[in-house]
Amino acid sequence: MQKRECPQCNRNLLDSIVDKCMYCGFVLPENLKLSDEKKEIIEKRLNEAHEETQRRHKSKKPEKPSIFDYYHDVDLDNYDANID
Ligand SMILES: [Zn+2]
Q1: 14 CA distance to ligand 1 centroid (A)?
Q2: pTM assigned to the model
Q3: How far apart are CA 72 and CA 84, in angstroms?
Q4: Please, is 42 exposed, middle or buried when counting C-beta atoms within 10 Å of its C-beta (0-12, 13-18, 19+)?
Q5: In a structure prediction context, what are the per-residue pLDDT tens digits for the chain, which is 84 residues long?
Q6: How far apart are CA 9 and CA 5, in angstroms?
Q7: Are 30 and 46 spatial neighbours (Cβ–Cβ below 8 Å)?
Q8: How far is the CA of 38 from the centre of ligand 1 (A)?
Q9: Which residues of 4-33 are buried (b: 16+ CB within 10 A; e: fewer)?
Q10: Could you tell me the residue ranges of all domains in the chain?
């Protein structure tokens, strides 16, 4: 998988549905953005994880969402292989 680095702070970019660097907030250029297809996969996975969390913590008050909830380190290569 191709490494993606932020042009501004040079840190590794995690795959996310946000077209910004999670470290410095730099707006990513076209060539570093993820395709809509990959974003959909990530979004679906986030939703599933969110529902799972809600099931587990049904009695508890929902936690304030953290910005890091949107930056799961998704292995997209594996996901691509599993798409029918
Ligand atoms: Zn950055």
Answers
A1: 11
A2: 0.55
A3: 23
A4: buried
A5: 568 999 999 999 988 899 999 999 999 999 999 999 999 999 999 999 999 999 998 866 666 666 666 555 555 555 555 555
A6: 8
A7: no
A8: 20
A9: bebeeeeeebbbbbbeebbeeebebeeebb
A10: 1-84
